[in-house]
Amino acid sequence: MISFSRLAVPFLCLVAIAYSVSGLVIPVLAQQKTQELAKVPGVWRGNIHVKKPDLIGLDKLTFYTSTGYPPFNYYDEEGNLTGFNVDLAKAICDVLAVECVVRVEDWDNLIPALNAGKADGIMASMRITTPSVSKSDFTDTYYSTPARFVGRVKTKAINIAPERIKGIRIGVVTKTAHEAYLRDFFNDATIIPFGSSKGARAALMAGNIDLLFGDGVSMVFWLNGSLSNGCCEFRGGNYLESRYFGSGVGIAVKKRNRRMRHILNYGLNQLRSDGRYEELFRRYFPLSFY
After folding, report:
1. 147-245 belongs to which homologous superfamily?
2. Which of 33, 77, 208, 250 is most buried by a 10 A CB count?
3. Are strands 232-239 and 147-152 parallel, antiparallel or unpaired?
């Protein structure tokens, strides 16, 4: 299947922490010298004022999300639904002074549930792409997920430019937007597809490939966790081409529900204006994936 979509600690803390997903403990270091302090995504519409919507009759917002995508939406060790998306949904409800309900649904059932009127919005890191906008409308983007290259720390720097990368072995998870991007723009490289990110990362650590190309968010947690053993680091800049990686992540709303889109955009804008969005983002992402 071709995929086009898819910690909370102070940065200066020196101890390692871990979060658990269905019994799998994923360690994350709160600090590593090779990584930068998280950059809050500059995806908002500048200083454009979003007019306060009519909230008469609105006393509750219901969001649907999925699980198994830490740190965005997942169950913690005590079985509580948590994550960046979950907390952001609750913050929107708080700024609008309405009750908040966040429910879980399988990924494939999210849009059908929205269209059936079971939810006001989908808060599940759903990318704004041509296929997704044919099924639902979206709020403004509240973050973007860049693609990044990763290389081994002990190897010499590689000039990551399409015209200079001939023969370089690049690993990528097969049947993804990342593979499609490589084959369109880095086809002089030796592209080596893998069936999973685990296999691709193991190949990089073993020196069987020179670079790994993939999702920057998942890679920053791997790079700063114990599973990578400090082997690797980001190389080059980030890639955000919307044709491959979408136009960022937004809250999905039912088609032509302009009122709800306006309400949620107002809530997002208020959170960004008063600094609560930045505080929440840095809490979950103390290290930069941009």
Report:
1. Periplasmic binding protein-like II (3.40.190.10)
2. 250
3. antiparallel
Kindly give, in sequence order, each residue whose CB lies less than 8 Å from that of residue 171, ignoring residues fewer than 6 positions away.
192, 193, 194, 200, 203, 204, 208, 209, 211, 212, 213
- Rounded to whole angstroms, the Cα distance separating 233 from 225 reads 12
- The pTM of this model reads 0.73
- The torsion defined by the Cα of 130, 211, 70 and 43, in degrees rounded to 10, comes to -50
What are the pLDDT digits (tens) for 203-261? 999 999 999 999 998 898 899 889 999 999 999 989 999 889 888 899 999 999 999 99
Whether 147-245 and 16-144+247-284 are alike in CATH topology: the answer is yes
Residue 78: other Cβ atoms inside 10 A: 7
Q: What's the rounded Cα separation, in Å, for the pair 90 and 148?
A: 30
